[in-house]
């Protein structure tokens, strides 16, 4: 089943429920800051688990105390879809437990 891109309005409305997430019209992105490297690295492991469960993956960059994420759906022409928003929601749900802000 093909995944359809969301309209820019839909993306913006959905991101209102996901503080810190932004869009450039092609992707949704967020950077989390942690108290140290171990917490940031642990968050990457949890993100990888969520991505495997969803079968949908982001671009992620691990810094000393940051994790930056950017995601869109390649099979939808590199546009934002409901899969991207669901991934962001799932990540948000675990980020607070790791001290992400």
Describe this structure in a few short sentences.
The protein has three helices and four strands; from the N terminus they run αββαββα. By secondary structure, the chain is an alpha+beta fold.
**How many helices does DSSP assign?**
3
How do the helices and strands follow one another from N- to C-terminus? HEEHEEH
Which oligomerization state do the chains in this entry correspond to?
single chain
Cα-based radius of gyration, to the nearest Å: 13 Å
- Strand percent estimate: 15-25%
Describe what this molecule looks like in 3D.
The protein is an alpha+beta fold and 101 residues long. The protein has 3 helices and 4 strands; from the N terminus they run αββαββα. A 4-stranded antiparallel β-sheet has the order 1-2-4-3, covered by helices on one side. Helix 2 packs antiparallel against helix 3. The longest helix has 18 residues.
Main traits of this protein?
101 residues, alpha+beta, four-stranded antiparallel beta sheet, 18% strand, single chain, 4 strands
């Amino acid at each position: 089943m093909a995944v359809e891109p969301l309209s820019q309005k839909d993306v913006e409305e959905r991101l209102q429920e996901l503080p810190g997430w932004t869009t450039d019209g092609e992707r949704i992105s967020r950077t989390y800051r942690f108290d140290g490297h171990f917490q940031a690295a642990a968050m990457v492991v949890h993100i990888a688990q969520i991505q495997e469960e969803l079968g949908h993956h982001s671009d992620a960059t691990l810094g000393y105390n940051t994790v930056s994420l950017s995601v869109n759906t390649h099979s939808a022409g590199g546009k934002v879809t409901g899969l991207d928003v669901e991934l962001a929601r799932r990540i948000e749900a675990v980020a607070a437990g790791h001290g992400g802000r």
